[in-house]
């Protein structure tokens, strides 16, 4: 898509129609969900469900995948161990780094919030898109617990002269921490799981600082505005900044540099397009990019194993945001597609994804290929190109390419040359992303004007936002920040083994 777009990027209308054609692959209004394989009012109106692009495989089908394949599917654990487990770290050929990996995780966890307690196929993120619920909380109640109620700002604490998320003690939202984490190390964020990784807390801190920074700017422009209006308008500005950064830094990184991507909602004005979005189960399945994660985390020459990195909130303040951003920007992330690249510590996540897809009765990968306008694969060899051992293993496990499952296929498909993943991840991922980003209400003609964002100053903040500004305007000293490892360092990384800690 991005290659094609390159040809036409001066032709606004063609570019538009590419985006619209892409987005139109996503039904809007949404259709099915995991309970209903036919169109009905409950499936449309009950937003506690993720939607679905294809209905579930009916319960009375002869095989688990419909009509093709074996009577029982291969053990998910065995699939993961034989085909997904990392042997040796394979870096992203695009130079993708951990700054990207943590951005991906931080960003997507505002709309991927599986609500296990209600059953499979439910979500806690009722905004179904880029609402910044991961910054502001996913309910009004949580938002109020996180707000300072002064000048529009969010609660914070000052440590070593810098702003950090508040403790749970002062912003009493429900966060997920293991029992042995002391109260004075439990930070509160809009997303309950963000205590898990210092990389997520780094972004939570940056967006918190950004929110409070923008509040100051707006207050200066509008001295008479009350707390509520400052808060609400700042939130819209940060939503705009997020979409801008996702398109112009993040998707730009993924798509290579053939084309300069631009976030310009006006491109779609006058075109038939629905400004709404509903997150799909398939998008959630597809976005489990755990091969990105390294074998250990290296900060200023110190190496952290998973056991000392996960839930270690003191890393955030011990090193500070600058140091962490620099560390994450120079450490390579793994290649997502092509198989054999998930660290053993997190392999269970992939197993969980496969198991969930079975409970949800997801249709075969080839059915999704067709649904997204792609030719179905005719053999496992065609899927994995050149990986004969892998193809033979899949043949043995599944028996029939038309019974191949969605998620393992996305991870095992041959990556494009020099690319982080292959055709299906791009062709299926892009429509969901474009729809989710440009279908945001702030992109609609009714919203997309300076007054929505408090005037020209706020509008300009959105239109000039970037990853490096997000960091550099919110730290004291700004060094390299980006979504790819700088070329010089890529070479050195290969030479120098880090110190053990
Ligand atoms: C949505 O569906 C679930 C499961 O059937 C149900 O528990 C919940 O009450 C429904 N929500 C609404 C708003 O109807
Ligand atoms: C928060 O956690 C407490 C204690 O575990 C629980 O009683 C309460 O229902 C939770 N609140 C929400 C909104 O999940
Ligand atoms: C957490 O990180 C700090 C450095 O910030 C380190 O000194 C400490 O050992 C780590 N904690 C654990 C439990 O590994």
Automatic annotation (TrEMBL):
It comes from the Eukaryota. Keywords: Dioxygenase, Disulfide bond, EGF-like domain, Glycoprotein, Heme, Iron, Membrane, Metal-binding, Oxidoreductase, Signal. Substrate binds at residue 22. Transmembrane segments: none annotated. It is found in: Endomembrane system. The active site is at residues 109, 287. One of its GO terms (cellular component) is neuron projection. InterPro entries: Haem_peroxidase_animal, Haem_peroxidase_sf, Haem_peroxidase_sf_animal, Oxylipin_biosynth_metab. One of its GO terms (molecular function) is oxidoreductase activity, acting on single donors with incorporation of molecular oxygen, incorporation of two atoms of oxygen. GO terms for biological process: cyclooxygenase pathway; response to oxidative stress. It holds the Pfam family An_peroxidase. The keyword Signal applies. Heme b binds at residue 290. PANTHER family: PROSTAGLANDIN G/H SYNTHASE, PROSTAGLANDIN G_H SYNTHASE 1. This is Prostaglandin-endoperoxide synthase 1. The gene is PTGS1.
């Amino acid at each position: 898509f991005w290659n094609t777009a390159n040809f036409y990027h001066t032709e606004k209308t063609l570019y538009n129609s590419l985006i619209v054609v892409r987005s139109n692959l996503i039904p809007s209004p949404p259709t099915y969900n995991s309970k209903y394989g036919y169109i009905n009012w409950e499936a449309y109106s009950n937003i506690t469900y993720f939607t679905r692009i294809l209905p579930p495989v009916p319960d009375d089908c002869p095989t688990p995948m419909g009509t093709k394949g074996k009577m029982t599917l291969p053990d998910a654990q065995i699939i993961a161990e034989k085909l997904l487990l990392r042997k040796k770290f394979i870096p992203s050929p695009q130079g993708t780094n951990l700054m990207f990996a943590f951005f991906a995780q931080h960003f997507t966890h505002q709309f991927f919030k599986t609500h296990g307690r209600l059953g499979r196929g439910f979500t806690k993120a009722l905004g179904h898109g880029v609402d910044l619920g991961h910054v502001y909380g996913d309910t009004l109640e949580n938002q109020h617990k996180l707000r300072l109620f002064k000048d529009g700002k969010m609660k914070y604490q000052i440590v070593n002269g810098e702003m950090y998320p508040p403790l749970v003690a002062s912003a009493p939202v429900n966060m997920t921490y293991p029992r042995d984490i002391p109260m004075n190390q439990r930070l509160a964020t809009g997303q309950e799981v963000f205590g898990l990784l210092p990389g997520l807390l780094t972004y939570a801190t940056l967006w918190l600082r950004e929110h409070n920074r923008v509040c100051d700017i707006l207050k200066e422009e509008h001295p008479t505005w009350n707390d509520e209006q400052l808060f609400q308008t700042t939130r819209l500005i940060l939503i705009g900044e997020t979409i801008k950064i996702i398109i112009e830094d993040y998707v730009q990184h993924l798509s290579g540099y053939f084309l300069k991507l631009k976030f310009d909602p006006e491109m779609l004005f006058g075109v038939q397009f629905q400004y709404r979005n509903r997150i799909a189960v398939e998008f959630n399945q597809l976005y489990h990019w755990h091969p990105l994660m390294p074998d250990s985390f290296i900060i200023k020459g110190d190496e952290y194993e998973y056991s000392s990195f996960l839930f270690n909130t003191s890393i955030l303040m011990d090193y500070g945001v600058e140091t962490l951003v620099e560390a994450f920007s120079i450490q390579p992330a793994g290649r997502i597609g092509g198989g054999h690249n998930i660290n053993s510590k997190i392999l269970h996540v992939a197993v969980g994804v496969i198991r969930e897809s079975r409970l949800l009765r997801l249709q075969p990968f080839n059915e999704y290929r067709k649904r997204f306008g792609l030719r179905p694969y005719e053999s496992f060899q065609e899927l994995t190109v050149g990986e004969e051992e892998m193809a033979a293993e899949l043949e043995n496990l599944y028996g029939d390419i038309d019974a191949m499952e969605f998620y393992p296929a996305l991870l095992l498909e041959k990556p494009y040359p020099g690319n982080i993943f292959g055709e299906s991840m791009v062709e299926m991922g892009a429509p969901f992303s474009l729809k989710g980003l440009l279908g945001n209400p702030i992109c609609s003609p009714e919203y997309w004007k300076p007054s929505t964002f408090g005037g020209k100053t706020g509008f300009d903040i959105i239109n000039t936002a970037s990853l490096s500004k997000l960091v550099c305007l919110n730290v004291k000293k700004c060094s390299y920040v980006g979504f790819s490892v700088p070329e010089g360092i890529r070479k050195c990384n290969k030479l120098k083994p880090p110190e053990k800690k």
